[in-house]
Amino acid sequence: MKITVFLLLLLVCSDSTAQTTPEADKEIQQPLPQDIRDLLKELAASLAQQKVEITFLKIENQAQEAKLEKQETEITKLKQQVEVKQVAFTVSLSAEGEITVGPFDTLSTLIFKHVVTNIGNAYNQNTGMFTAPVRGAYHFEWYIGAHGFVTAAVLVKNTEQIFLAYEQQSSGYGTSSSGATLLLEAGDTVFLQLWPQTKMYDNRHHHTTFSGRLLFTM
After folding, report:
1. Cis geometry, peptide bond prior to residue 33 (ω within 30 degrees of 0)
2. Which of 112, 139, 138, 134 is nearest to 123 (CA)?
3. Are 87 and 214 contacting, i.e. CB atoms less than 8 angstroms apart?
4. SS3 for 54?
5. Does residue 206 surpass a pLDDT of 50?
6. Cis geometry, peptide bond prior to residue 31 (ω within 30 degrees of 0)
7. Coiled-coil regions in this chain (predicted)?
8. CB atoms near residue 156 (< 10 Å)
9. pLDDT-based confidence at 213, cuts 50/70/90?
10. How far is the C-alpha of 189 from the C-alpha of 162, rounded, in Å?
11. 3-state DSSP call for residue 115?
12. All residues at 6 or more sequence positions from 204 whose CB lies less than 8 Å from its CB, including other chains
């Protein structure tokens, strides 16, 4: 209602200005009535209050956007954790047929070509290496075969030798196995190496195997 009255007053002033006379000019220069000045002050105060409220709304909106972004980030992390919890592999040395690897003068990384399971794709069948996708506890097992010779394979974490499985078979076929649970950081590698001056045997029955899985994240 007050704003309507103020607009009517402005229209009246505009009409008076259009028909200006010396007497009208003198009247226009007269101070505004007190009630109009009070109305202007009230409108100015109301406008200032609206600006303050708009500022607070902007700040609150920014806070809500930041909160929403944080929640989306947390949801993404939770999804990633669910995905990386599904990590497991089982591989064997021979892809097909009978093979004997070695002997070599130095340690040699064993590349297991026959992939039975590779959930999470953490095992690389081209390099023979398992790469931890996330920090956590992992369990590994390996079984090795000897056919009339000495065989030995060591589990390696990055550059650290962990456990060695060893078998000496003068005739016929023999096996050995071992296992270990390791705390790995994301990016750590785990693999098996053939011990120097030993051999490794496998055939279509897949006696020589390497397996690993994520137990839990940390």
Report:
1. no
2. 112
3. yes
4. helix
5. yes
6. no
7. 40-88
8. 18
9. very high
10. 12
11. strand
12. 94, 96, 97, 98
